[in-house]
Amino acid sequence: MVWFAAGLFLPAALVRAAVAQNRPRQMLEVRIENRQVVEPREAIRVTQGDVIELRWTSDEAVELHLHGYDIEFDVEPGEPASMVIQANATGRFPITSHGWGDGGHGHDALIFLEVYPN
Length: 118
Prior knowledge:
By secondary structure, this protein is of the alpha+beta class. It has one helix at 2-21; strands at 26-33, 36-39, 44-47, 51-58, 62-66, 71-75, 81-86, 91-100, 109-116. The protein has a 5-stranded mixed β-sheet with strand order 3-9-8-5-6, with no helix packed on it. Strands 2-1-4-7 form a 4-stranded mixed β-sheet, with no helix packed on it.
């Protein structure tokens, strides 16, 4: 019985994994002004398995950190920076600054990435 049940669920898991790999990359512009995200105005919502590219612009230099995925990168003013994420972990993950151009350190969430299960 266990082997039979495993046989039913395993192919479904393989199909979901294959579908996730063939999903097109979603691109979203994220704009920071005066140390706040002004676009988009709400949390970034995706489904588990999605591949997303967040294209960041900022009016001052900032080091960003996507918690839970442990992605850190820098954004320089006037130079868009891309963060590509394979949304495997589900949950609500803050994206925070770990340093601004003039040395200011903020750790409050600028925006949240929400990954919903399939």
